[in-house]
């Protein structure tokens, strides 16, 4: 499906979007989680970067599976590639969870802002409490997504330089 781009293997090209967008989304979403007033201004750009990173992770995983199959057909099969593929699957799950949490942060943040603007007697603080819980979840998932991005990228580099490239 996603085997080549301009005659080059797609996977090594696509991973560049993952290693740039996911950590950028992580740092940006942590900023939104920690500084709620920034949500009004930066929620949409952070959401788009996050969805771009998550989408890139999914597409890179699909392209990686195609690339791995092509390598096997050419007689290249080693444990480093398999380890990288397993970490890619884990990263995809973390990235998807992170993406859902950022969407929840944006939605809960908007509802908390509406609740805050309607502050007065009888107004509950439900969405404000929910947005705090979601913010904590986003921070944790952002950190784990970045850690998994680094681990997966490093294992891919090892597969090239200690495996295929040697």
TrEMBL record:
Q: Where is the DUF2231 domain?
A: 7-162
Q: Which UniProt keywords apply?
A: Membrane, Transmembrane, Transmembrane helix
Task: Tell me yes or no: is Transmembrane helix among this UniProt entry's keywords.
Answer: yes
Q: Which InterPro entries match?
A: DUF2231_TM
Q: Does the keyword Cell membrane apply?
A: no
Transmembrane spans? 13-35, 42-63, 91-109, 130-147
User: What's the protein here called?
Assistant: DUF2231 domain-containing protein
């Amino acid at each position: 499906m996603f085997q080549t781009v301009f005659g080059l293997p797609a996977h090594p090209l696509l991973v560049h979007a993952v290693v740039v967008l996911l950590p950028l989304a992580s740092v940006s979403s942590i900023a939104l989680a920690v500084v709620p007033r920034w949500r009004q201004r930066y929620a949409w750009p952070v959401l788009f970067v996050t969805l771009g990173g998550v989408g890139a992770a999914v597409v890179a995983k699909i392209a990686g599976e195609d690339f791995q199959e092509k390598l096997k057909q050419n007689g290249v099969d080693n444990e480093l590639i398999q380890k990288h593929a397993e970490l890619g699957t884990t990263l995809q799950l973390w990235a998807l969870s992170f993406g859902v949490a950022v969407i929840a942060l944006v939605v809960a943040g908007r509802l908390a802002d509406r609740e805050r603007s309607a502050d007065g007697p009888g107004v509950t603080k439900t969405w404000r409490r929910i947005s705090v819980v979601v913010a904590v979840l986003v921070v944790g998932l952002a950190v784990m997504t970045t850690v998994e991005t680094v681990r997966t990228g490093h294992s891919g580099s090892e597969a090239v330089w200690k495996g295929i490239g040697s």
